[in-house]
UniProtKB/TrEMBL annotation:
<dbReference type="InterPro" id="IPR050764">
    <property type="entry name" value="CbbQ/NirQ/NorQ/GpvN"/>
</dbReference>
<feature type="domain" description="AAA+ ATPase">
    <location>
        <begin position="35"/>
        <end position="176"/>
    </location>
</feature>
<dbReference type="InterPro" id="IPR011703">
    <property type="entry name" value="ATPase_AAA-3"/>
</dbReference>
<dbReference type="InterPro" id="IPR003593">
    <property type="entry name" value="AAA+_ATPase"/>
</dbReference>
<feature type="region of interest" description="Disordered">
    <location>
        <begin position="306"/>
        <end position="333"/>
    </location>
</feature>
<dbReference type="Pfam" id="PF07726">
    <property type="entry name" value="AAA_3"/>
</dbReference>
<dbReference type="GO" id="GO:0016887">
    <property type="term" value="F:ATP hydrolysis activity"/>
</dbReference>
<dbReference type="GO" id="GO:0005524">
    <property type="term" value="F:ATP binding"/>
</dbReference>
<dbReference type="Pfam" id="PF17863">
    <property type="entry name" value="AAA_lid_2"/>
</dbReference>
<dbReference type="InterPro" id="IPR027417">
    <property type="entry name" value="P-loop_NTPase"/>
</dbReference>
<protein>
    <submittedName>
        <fullName>ATPase AAA</fullName>
    </submittedName>
</protein>
<dbReference type="InterPro" id="IPR041628">
    <property type="entry name" value="ChlI/MoxR_AAA_lid"/>
</dbReference>
Amino acid sequence: MTAPEELYETLSAEIDAVLIGKEELVEGLTIAALTRGHVLLEGVPGVAKTTLARLFARASGLEHTRVQMTPDVLPADVTGTHVYREPTGEFELQRGPVFANLVIADEINRATPKTQSALLEAMQERQVTIGGETLSLPEPFMLVATQNPIEMEGTFELPEAQRDRFQLKLTADLPDRDEGRRLLDRFDDDPDLDPGSIERVATADELLDARATVTEVYVDDSVKEYVLDIVAATRENPNVEYGASPRATLAFLDAAKARAAIHGRDYVIPDDVKALLEPVLVHRLVLSTDASLGDVSAADVLAEIESGVEPPGGDQTPATQTAVHDGGSPDDR
């Protein structure tokens, strides 16, 4: 059986041959791939959002497609349609780019709400309906959507229902000076570096195999209560109009199990939950009008919640993390 830790280390090392300083983003993409999740990747232009998604797809051996979202893209351009063939006098199904293991929806907020909603069925049900016919999508299936937080003219904000279907929202930051210098040197030595420069170091079957391992990761009751306490706090915070949904709670648990697995553990610790608190929840919160007018961000609310909800065992150290696990080990199940 494929070990999630080995899979992650292999993917990370291969992607690092092109990009620098994207370890957290590769970790997030791996977590989503191991838990049937989707990723919303946000960053200013030029921080290699699309390149990262393509590198991940190639390294993991997944068949991938890319759709450049613009206001004139129609739902049929994404899902497919029936095309009339005059020689045969029949309609033939023409599958859209959504029929791939990994679909990159570039600048998703530039598509109209009608086109955005065409992805809802695919994201949740792993299927699409074309002309009354329901078709299953390949397995594994994963959507990586990018968006630009600036240049908001001519864009359409993702509705809450669609944001909730993204397991993680990851932010691609600008590199620091040291990373920028290393990047300059790397592309000065090899200007032709691109996703085609790396090898396929995994396969879709290995990814599915590693998924099975993730499902066996143990989660102590105290850690589950910690997740529920955080979710409850999002619903009770005065700056939040609508807090995290049950779908978010399940995504939280699955992501924590995958993070534990790729770090070589067969049990979840509170620090797994802490590390994923913002990526899982930041795009799901609907802030109150007063919070929006007061320049309170979702990240601010989550920082307040993280400091206000006590984890199992209090402040976590390696010793207390082990103690939490030992309090309910897999051997005791």
